[in-house]
Write a structure and sequence with these properties.
This protein is mostly beta strands. The chain is built from two helices and 40 strands. A hairpin with a 5-residue loop joins strand 14 and strand 15.
């Protein structure tokens, strides 16, 4: 299976202060799903021919294993192992390792955190997904800290000095691994920072502080927050670490943390992550959401010079979309699939998706395989539809349980984390 084009370009070295520093040292193969949004961090898999029909009782269910409690995080897969974060009784924050062939739990490691941590009833603890490079797994437990484990479950390092998280909606941003670095949007809340730490030691390499918390008088506050994961991309001759924050999209030098550019046009709550294609960054806000597209590669405030379009009001969206052949696709919180022109922001089509499940809401992010888009809603219904200029629904597949997490793809199989079970779906 071929290496994704993006990772091939990232395997090049950066020249920094007269020395060569490899940004990516480990090649990620298409059969692995090493992070929340896959090998490229954008919900795209190089695999095709994935299952398109299944049910909770069909032969396409390879296995399902019960989970100790509900959860919103997405599993990641490397080789013969599946990793999943899980809140457990006794104020435990845990990382689970399962056998991918059978679903058997191989080990559980974590930390007991007895201090109060603000969150929302719909956002259980451990909502951040793990990330792995094939040697270690890095996981954010929010206020309980940032941890790294090896594949046998041994703790390699931890950071419990990053501070506490406090936001009415809780936290959920996941680590991003690249070369010798771990990037993390540590937030939201008053203690919000974009962190870069050494992958092998956990030592801070740089830190960017960002405003967070709430603004306004007591009783009339506007909460600020970003749950975005940073997106690393090669733009021209340089690398950019792209982020979306309350009020803006922006990019940083991944080696130094220096801000490269900023573009205004997002609202105070940003739930999903930025996307990049053809030199264009797309950022979308959540509640009362705005949306924008901006050309990457600029310097300073590029709002007037590089912003391609701005939408002052879009439907509520929590999950992230995908970009494909000049179009942006997303399934909004209300269960509406949308397709927009990447360069203009104009709506190409919009369709409401409703399955047999009890809820049409959607918080999960899209996954693209070839020209097929996969999206699972809170009712446990996975919709598969075409990425193209006209809407075409391929199939609707229901598991009959609540799902907040996104789909993970590995070696022809789909891994779906529900509130009761972890499912492995494959061709019969």
């Amino acid at each position: 299976m071929k290496t994704p084009r993006f990772l091939g370009s990232l395997a090049a070295s950066l020249v920094l202060a007269g020395s060569l520093l490899p940004l990516v040292q480990v090649q990620v193969h298409g059969a692995n799903w090493p992070s929340w949004r896959g090998p490229n961090g954008d919900g795209v898999t190089e695999e095709t021919g994935l299952p398109t029909t299944w049910s909770a009782t069909s032969a396409n269910v390879k296995w399902k294993v019960p989970l100790p409690d509900r959860g919103n995080s997405t599993p990641v897969v490397w080789g013969d192992k599946v990793f999943l974060t899980q809140a457990a009784p006794g104020n435990r924050r845990e990382l689970m390792c399962l056998d991918r062939k059978t679903g058997k739990v191989l080990w559980q490691q974590g930390v007991t955190f007895n201090e109060p941590e603000t969150t929302h009833a719909t956002n259980p603890y451990c909502s951040a997904s793990p990330a792995t490079d094939g040697e270690r797994i890095v996981v954010s437990f929010g206020s309980a800290g940032l941890y790294a484990y090896d594949f046998a479950g041994k703790e390699l390092w931890h950071r419990t000095d990053l501070g506490k998280q406090h936001h009415i909606w809780g936290n959920a941003a996941s680590p991003v691994l690249a070369g010798d670095r771990v990037f993390l949007n540590f937030g939201p809340g008053e203690n919000t920072a974009l962190l870069c730490v050494d992958k092998k030691t956990g030592k801070t390499l740089w830190e960017h502080k960002e405003p967070g918390g709430a603004s306004g008088e007591e009783g009339n506050k506007t909460w600020l927050g970003s749950w975005s994961d940073p997106l690393l991309r090669k733009v021209g001759s340089r690398y950019e670490l792209i982020m979306t924050y309350p009020g803006r999209a922006c990019a940083f030098d991944p080696m130094t943390g220096k801000e490269l550019w900023t573009c205004a046009g997002l609202n105070p709550l940003v739930y999903n992550s930025p996307l990049y294609a053809d030199g264009i960054v797309v950022g979308m806000g959540g509640f009362g959401g705005m949306a924008l597209a901006v050309r990457a590669g600029g310097s300073g405030d590029v709002t007037a010079t590089h912003r391609l379009w701005h939408l002052p009001k879009v439907s509520q969206r929590i999950g992230s979309g995908v970009l494909y052949e000049g179009r942006h696709y997303i399934l909004s919180d209300g269960g509406i699939a949308e397709c927009r022109d990447l360069k203009t922001g104009e709506m190409v089509w919009s369709e409401r998706l409703k399955g047999p499940g009890p809820s049409g809401q959607n918080w999960s992010s899209l996954v693209r395989s070839g020209d097929l888009l996969y999206a699972v809603n809170q009712g446990g219904d996975t919709f598969i539809f075409k990425a193209g200029p006209k809407f075409e629904l391929v199939s609707t597949n229901s598991l009959g349980e609540r799902v907040i997490a996104s789909i993970a793809v590995s070696d022809g199989e789909l891994f779906i984390r529900g509130y009761k079970n972890l499912w492995c779906i494959g061709r019969e």
